[in-house]
């Protein structure tokens, strides 16, 4: 069996956990750090989550998945899959899991984002390398969330 492949990054944000949480689930805010995509969901376990953006004047679903579990203000887990990638079948076994965890400490929030397990999905090594992006992983998005909330 292959070694598990997860990308995990954390950042400390000078904002309370409710503000960080809002940045994770509010479509107007996700658009500011997730490549112009709005996260559209009812945020209930089992419900669909779509990351929608606009390309050439047309609405596009760039990533889809489902909410796995949610503890508002503390933890969110959902699956992700690129419906535009014809090289993979859209089955649960090819969906990755993303977990956000928030922890307040001394008036700040530590936000951790983890994605994986790349070792268990189709094209896992390639997908891992794409996310890892030379060692960056989720860092660019976390830095954008931090900048948005601290400005």
TrEMBL record:
Residues 14-150 form the Activator of Hsp90 ATPase homologue 1/2-like C-terminal domain. InterPro entries: ASHA1/2-like_C, START-like_dom_sf. It comes from the Bacteria. Belongs to the AHA1 family. This is SRPBCC domain-containing protein.
């Amino acid at each position: 069996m292959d070694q598990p492949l997860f990308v995990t990054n954390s950042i400390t944000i000078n904002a309370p956990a409710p503000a960080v949480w809002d940045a994770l689930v509010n479509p107007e805010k996700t658009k500011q750090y997730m490549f112009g995509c709005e996260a559209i969901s009812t945020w209930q376990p089992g419900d669909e989550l779509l990351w929608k953006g606009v390309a050439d004047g047309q609405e596009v679903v760039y990533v889809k998945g489902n909410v796995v579990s949610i503890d508002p203000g503390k933890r969110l887990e959902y699956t992700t899959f690129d419906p535009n990638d014809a090289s993979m079948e859209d089955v649960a076994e090819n969906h990755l899991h993303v977990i956000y965890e928030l922890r307040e400490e001394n008036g700040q929030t530590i936000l951790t984002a983890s994605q994986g397990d790349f070792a268990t999905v189709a094209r896992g090594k390639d997908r891992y390398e794409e996310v890892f992006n030379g060692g960056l992983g989720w860092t660019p998005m976390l830095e954008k969330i931090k900048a948005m909330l601290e400005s």
